[in-house]
Design goal:
Blueprint: H1 3-31, H2 41-59, H3 63-98, H4 104-112, H5 122-135
Helix pairs in contact: 1-2, 1-5, 2-3, 3-4, 3-5
């Protein structure tokens, strides 16, 4: 097996990992009923778009599909921190409404332990970086 063949196999493996992860996260979001408010549809849309462009690029490795793939991966990297912010904001508002007397470190400990998992949207960043790693020097 040549170096080129080995690299191609590793790249395909990265795409398989991306598809498995994105599919699993879509299933988890459905199970968690992560669709009560319009902003909660954003990760669904991005993950479904991830699956679509990954399939497209798997079948057609030309430059156009690669650029679309890279664009979606960049959107995932951007969406992750925004989702983390929204989770923290939602937890903060819930804690302030539940017990307005809690302040300082106690408040922030409750916020980071809140109902919306603060780091969960970071998974989007991981998927985006995995995809960009695939596309590096492609």
């Amino acid at each position: 097996m040549t170096t080129h063949d080995m690299l191609s196999l590793l790249r395909r493996g990265l795409l398989v990992l991306l598809v498995i992860g994105a599919s699993g996260l879509v299933a988890e979001l459905v199970l968690l009923e992560h669709y009560e408010e319009p902003p909660q549809f954003i990760p669904f849309g991005l993950l479904l778009l991830t699956l679509v462009v990954t399939a497209w690029h798997w079948m057609d490795e030309r430059k156009r599909s690669l650029r679309a793939f890279q664009s979606v991966m960049l959107l995932l990297v951007i969406a992750g921190p925004i989702g983390m912010f929204l989770h923290v904001k939602g937890n903060y508002e819930a804690e302030r409404e539940f017990d307005p007397s809690v302040l300082g470190l106690d408040l922030w400990l409750e916020v980071i332990r809140g109902e919306a998992p603060m780091l969960a949207p970071g998974t989007l960043v991981q998927f985006g970086l995995l995809g960009l790693l695939y596309a590096y020097r492609h």
